[in-house]
């Protein structure tokens, strides 16, 4: 636990997020689940929760997120957000994390981080309505070291390929403040402020893709709401993540 400079982070973040609590837990089912439970129980403080081990880490679309202690950085940031339009929030988070880590890391819509066409990190954004407030939990899992990929359909990437020797505390230290700034900027300006940044890192751009409904097309960046634009035989489709998933053709 000594390696995690919680007091420094509390001090650095509390200018932007007064009252923030920073915690590193040796084990929890899922850092997202824990912050969602706290929010539903009425604790709406901004909180950063790092999990050294997750026993039931969760991914998007009901999938699980598996990682071994030390091989991945797994954390969640929870905070009340006042937004009229939530579309594109998770994409903006992806842009921020990508920019903080390495110039060659790309985004695979909607919000996977890619290193050399392999998944390096994933983002799970969840929200809880508590009275009139809406509390957002931004969960991020970043592979740090080579991992056993036997149970995965595609082989993952890990951050030490791009940044040899980097460990969890250093990784979080790079990502944290820009992430908080991104969330506050999103609150003021919405996704419009991040569209260009997404398109600059878009790993699907101009690639042939297949949508989960079987449609084929070519990916052409995202629109002002963060929907993926796909040119298909039937014209341009704006895909939102709730509708379909997208897979690049090899
Ligand atoms: C995905 O790729 O589908 C999203 C993966 C998100 C994983 C992170 S790890 C920290 C936080 N806690 C969880 O249970 N999930 C997120």
Overview of the molecule:
By secondary structure, the chain is an alpha+beta fold. It has two domains: 194 residues, BirA Bifunctional Protein, domain 2, CATH 3.30.930; 41 residues, SH3 type barrels, CATH 2.30.30. It is 26% helix and 30% strand. It is built from six helices and twelve strands. A hairpin with a 5-residue loop joins strand 9 and strand 10. Helix 3 packs across helix 5 and helix 3 packs across helix 6. The longest helix has 22 residues. The radius of gyration is 18 Å and the shape is globular. The relative contact order is 0.15. Biotin binds next to helix 2, strand 3, strand 6 and strand 7.
The number of E-state strands comes to 12
Bound molecules: biotin
Secondary-structure element series: HEHEEHEEEEHHHEEEEE
Shape: globular
Overall structural domain count? 2
Q: Beta-strand level of the residues, as a percent range?
A: 25-35%
The helical percent reads 25-40%
Distance between the termini: 42 Å
According to CATH, what is the class of the largest domain?
Alpha Beta
CATH topology value of the largest domain: BirA Bifunctional Protein, domain 2
Query: Which value, in Å, is the CA radius of gyration?
Result: 18 Å
CATH superfamily of the largest domain: Bira Bifunctional Protein, Domain 2
Low-confidence runs of at least 5 consecutive residues:
none
Contiguous helical run count: 6
Question: For the largest beta sheet, what order do the strands appear in spatially?
Answer: 1-2-3-7-6-5-4
Named at the architecture level, the CATH assignment of the largest domain is 2-Layer Sandwich
Classification by helices and strands: alpha+beta
Major sheet details:
7 strands, mixed
Arithmetic mean pLDDT: 93
